[in-house]
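Reopening closed ticket. The problem is back. First fold of the pair:
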Amino acid sequence: MTANGHLPDFEPDDGSSSIYNARSVSEIRAALAELHKKEATVTSQLDALVSAQKDLQRELGRLDLFRANVTTQASKARAISNGMLSDAAANAKRISNSVKKLDLEQERVKATLTVVEQVGELKACILGVSGSMGAAQDWETAC
């Protein structure tokens, strides 16, 4: 289009006859036939583009439906995952607390065993001192 909104005069670049250059009725008919061929070509190209646009619109609609389904499925998967993870987290916390209690009990048992061993050594020492102070009266050994 030109600046004034009109279509420019069609002048073919291939040097073929133009309706504007025609000098006789036969030249006008030949130019008109050529224009009809070009019109048919352009019309078929436009029809193909419109058809392709319809196909594209249909595919875009399918993609929108697919996107909606995927979004729904992702939301459901997130909800299921969160439910599973919260159950797993609760189980992990319960197990962790049980392990901490077992560790504390193990430390207490070890401390008790240490005290029992020390009491046993002390008892052996007392028996040795008592034996040395008894009949033998070995004061150096007793000390």
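Second fold of the pair, where the issue appears:
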Amino acid sequence: MSITGVVTTLPISPVVLPPSAMPPFSVSDIRKRTHAVQEIMRGVMKEGTHYGTIPGTPKPSLWKAGAEVLCMTFRLAPLLESRVTVDDPEAEWSYTSFKRDGNIVTGICIGYFEVEATCTIAGLNGETFSRCSARCCSREAKYRSLSLFDIRNTVLKMAEKRAFVSAVLMATGASDIFTQDLEDFPELMDPALPKNMEPKPRPASPTVESKVGQGLTPKREAWLFRAAQEAKLPKEALEKCLEHLCLSAPDVVKGFFDDLAKRKNVFSPFLGTAA
């Protein structure tokens, strides 16, 4: 103690426990937690509102509304922090994109805006369960045709949403049930295929079965049916194309989908034989 009666002490630093020092969950606790997520999904969440299934993906995608339900279920508190990483209204940049009809579109945009958001998920006692970051910028395809000053808030909210959903998945251990939020990719969220576009059972010949899974993966197959639906491809032509891909080597299948990604007319060889 000093002569003035003031006691000087060293500041006490907060004690931070490493993950290995925290009591682990038992197998029973993990099972109960996973079961709770599944029950909430079946009893509370609605497909198309809280989550959605993308054609060709094995798991449904968690949306922001579903992440909020999980936070309420487990009494988690999300803390969002955002910072502008780039804000240059004078920046000038060009872009090239491919339309579905095969045409190439080019353009020049003025201005660039980018935001990084960080979401921290905390429990009732203040313990941190997860911390994830995500970014969004005005160069993304759905924003680049809009005025920079009109999309600032949208870019901010999208970055926060991505970080929030990612952090909730990590905190609740629900990644084995849901994937990351994909609702901001509308091109992947086409409605279910009509019945005349559904996959046809393949013949059980050894030649076809030996090739299935090597090049034509389930994800590529779902992509093929979406592209055929958009191109209004006749059913007979689609069957010919599917049979061709099943009997082709993996490198040939890869080349087919590389051309499809470039918006080339990959279905023309099968139209002549469809009649």
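Update: turned out to be a display glitch only; the data is intact. The longest helix spans residues 152-172. DSSP finds eight helices and five strands in the chain. Please close again.
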